[in-house]
UniProtKB/TrEMBL annotation:
<feature type="binding site">
    <location>
        <position position="376"/>
    </location>
    <ligand>
        <name>Zn(2+)</name>
    </ligand>
</feature>
<keyword id="KW-0819">tRNA processing</keyword>
<protein>
    <recommendedName>
        <fullName>Queuine tRNA-ribosyltransferase accessory subunit 2</fullName>
    </recommendedName>
</protein>
<keyword id="KW-0963">Cytoplasm</keyword>
<comment type="subunit">
    <text>Heterodimer of a catalytic subunit and an accessory subunit.</text>
</comment>
<dbReference type="InterPro" id="IPR002616">
    <property type="entry name" value="tRNA_ribo_trans-like"/>
</dbReference>
<feature type="binding site">
    <location>
        <position position="347"/>
    </location>
    <ligand>
        <name>Zn(2+)</name>
    </ligand>
</feature>
<dbReference type="InterPro" id="IPR050852">
    <property type="entry name" value="Queuine_tRNA-ribosyltrfase"/>
</dbReference>
<comment type="similarity">
    <text>Belongs to the queuine tRNA-ribosyltransferase family. QTRT2 subfamily.</text>
</comment>
<dbReference type="Pfam" id="PF01702">
    <property type="entry name" value="TGT"/>
</dbReference>
<feature type="binding site">
    <location>
        <position position="345"/>
    </location>
    <ligand>
        <name>Zn(2+)</name>
    </ligand>
</feature>
<feature type="binding site">
    <location>
        <position position="350"/>
    </location>
    <ligand>
        <name>Zn(2+)</name>
    </ligand>
</feature>
<dbReference type="InterPro" id="IPR036511">
    <property type="entry name" value="TGT-like_sf"/>
</dbReference>
<comment type="function">
    <text>Non-catalytic subunit of the queuine tRNA-ribosyltransferase (TGT) that catalyzes the base-exchange of a guanine (G) residue with queuine (Q) at position 34 (anticodon wobble position) in tRNAs with GU(N) anticodons (tRNA-Asp, -Asn, -His and -Tyr), resulting in the hypermodified nucleoside queuosine (7-(((4,5-cis-dihydroxy-2-cyclopenten-1-yl)amino)methyl)-7-deazaguanosine).</text>
</comment>
<dbReference type="InterPro" id="IPR028592">
    <property type="entry name" value="QTRTD1"/>
</dbReference>
<feature type="domain" description="tRNA-guanine(15) transglycosylase-like">
    <location>
        <begin position="13"/>
        <end position="405"/>
    </location>
</feature>
<keyword id="KW-0479">Metal-binding</keyword>
Length: 408
């Protein structure tokens, strides 16, 4: 895997492409970009045919190990790997150790094992178990095992140090197996950077990880809201300074539009798309505008096109802890709202259905509700990433950032 940087804004914000993607000759991934989040190797709630109809569907997909690990013996018997097993062989398959779409219980990692949580409960992964699963699944790209169980503000310095030490040990153990295994030799490997909220440990983790022969890096531990935005940004900046500029950087759990803009500005290249999934699970739809050719901010843009009742819902949703980028379709007032989820949206759901219908489906607990919301939320999110890239090309990144950040 190679990162080709085509444009650099303010010394850190990068526009480019990931190239030389192994068996996918001639294919590229545009960055900044996101991978498609999957559960059981499929887009949540959607058949593959439905997912393929979504505009700007990412070529890279994120396989989440906790949603696959229980079936690894079946995949071993199948022998051709997870891509063929799930008919996803045309995509670039990235395997993540944890599932960013769920909350991971704390306190279950041990010196030799990382815990993941499957539908059947806790599974303990040693380097040997993990690398055996990799050999059976045959992804194109994976991250090494890591101990990311350090809750900001709660984890002691000793625990943070231990998480960095263990993660480096897992990295060396995984690399040793990978380099001596014909099945794993050609798979791209990313190392994971830990360090919680400790500046020193973050730097140590980044410096040490950068010494290893890796295709790129993963920044973990930035998903918690317990870390203040400025602290997160300072930690992120310190880490990125220690990493080689010519290798890609992926971040976990940083999916809210304002967080994405801040991370892109600092030099993060790849994101996951668990955010639109969690919005869907809450019965919500993404409605934030990202057209940087007009001057309105999020609140005014959402409110301008809204009825009085919607304005009241929007304010109430914000009070209820729903992010400012979404509306909650379970709200009773949408019962007789016959407009699409978002005016001018070109997705299947908005072209064919109304808020009232989706409200009805949610109230009657029909599975179709989340199918329609997932289509819209993925469509909107993937368009957002395309717009980020275009804004860098147009030298309008700051205009777009202002629209996204000016929403409170
Ligand atoms: Zn839509």
């Amino acid at each position: 895997m190679k990162l080709v940087i085509k444009q650099l804004l303010d010394g850190s914000c990068r526009l480019g492409q990931l190239t030389e993607l192994g068996r996918h000759t001639g294919r590229v991934i545009d960055v900044p970009g996101c991978l498609m989040y999957t559960r059981g190797a499929s887009a949540p709630h959607l058949t593959q045919d439905m997912a393929k109809t979504i505009d700007k569907l990412p070529f890279g997909i994120q396989l989440t190990l906790p949603t696959l690990a229980e079936n690894h013996e079946v995949i071993e018997d199948y022998k051709l790997g997870i891509g063929s097993f799930t008919s996803q062989q045309d995509s670039l398959l990235f395997l993540s150790v944890q599932d960013p779409g769920t909350t991971i219980p704390s306190g279950y990692n041990e010196k030799q094992f990382v815990s993941i949580w499957t539908t059947g409960g806790r599974m303990r992964l040693s380097t040997a178990t993990f690398t055996t699963m990799l050999k059976n699944m045959k992804p194109d790209w994976f991250e090494c095992l890591y101990d990311g169980d350090v809750v900001p503000g709660t984890a002691s310095k000793k625990r943070i140090r231990k998480s960095v030490d263990r993660t480096l040990q897992y990295l060396d153990d995984c690399l040793e197996v990978q380099q001596n295994s014909p099945e794993l030799k050609n798979i791209e490997v990313f190392g994971v950077i830990e360090g919680g909220d400790s500046h020193d440990e973050r730097i140590r983790s980044a410096k040490e990880t950068a010494k290893r022969p890796l295709s790129g890096f993963v920044l973990d531990g930035f998903q918690s809201d317990a870390l203040a935005t400025d602290v997160k940004q300072n930690l992120m900046m310190s880490v990125l300074k220690e990493l080689p500029e010519d290798k890609p950087r992926l971040i976990h759990g940083c999916g809210r539009p304002d967080q994405v803009m801040q991370a892109v500005e600092l030099g993060i290249d790849v994101f996951d798309s668990a955010f639109p999934y969690s919005v869907t699970e809450s019965g919500c739809a993404l409605v934030f505008p990202f057209s940087y050719n007009h001057q309105s901010n999020v609140d005014s843009a959402v409110l301008e096109q809204s009825t009085d009742q919607e304005k009241s819902n929007y304010v109430n949703d914000n009070k209820a802890g729903i992010s400012r980028y979404e509306i909650n379709l379970t709200n009773e007032s949408y019962k007789s709202d016959f407009t699409p989820l978002l005016a001018d949206c070109k997705c299947y759901s908005c072209q064919n259905h109304t808020k009232a219908y989706i409200n009805h489906l949610l109230v009657t607990k029909e599975l179709l509700a989340r199918v329609l919301l997932m289509i819209h939320n993925f469509h909107h999110y993937f368009e957002f990433f395309e717009t980020i890239r275009q804004s860098i090309r147009d030298d309008k990144f700051q205009q777009l950032k202002k629209i996204i950040m000016d929403s409170t």
